[in-house]
Amino acid sequence: MRIITLSENMVSEYSSPAIMMGEYGEWNFRLLGGRGEWGLSILVEADDHRILLDTGSHGAAVHNAELMGIDLSRVDKIVLSHGHCDHTGGLREVLRKMRKNVEIIAHPAIWSSKYFRIDNGTYAYDEIPFQREELETLGASFNLSKEPVWITENVATSGEISMVTEYEKIDPIFYVKEKDQFHPDPLLDDQALFIKDKKGLVIILGCCHRGIVNTLNHAKKLTGVEKIYAIVGGTHLAGASKERLELTISELKASDIQKLGVSHCTGMATSMKLAQVFGDKFFFNNAGTITEI
Question: How far is it, in rounded angstroms, from Cα 49 to Cα 206?
Answer without folding.
Answer: 19
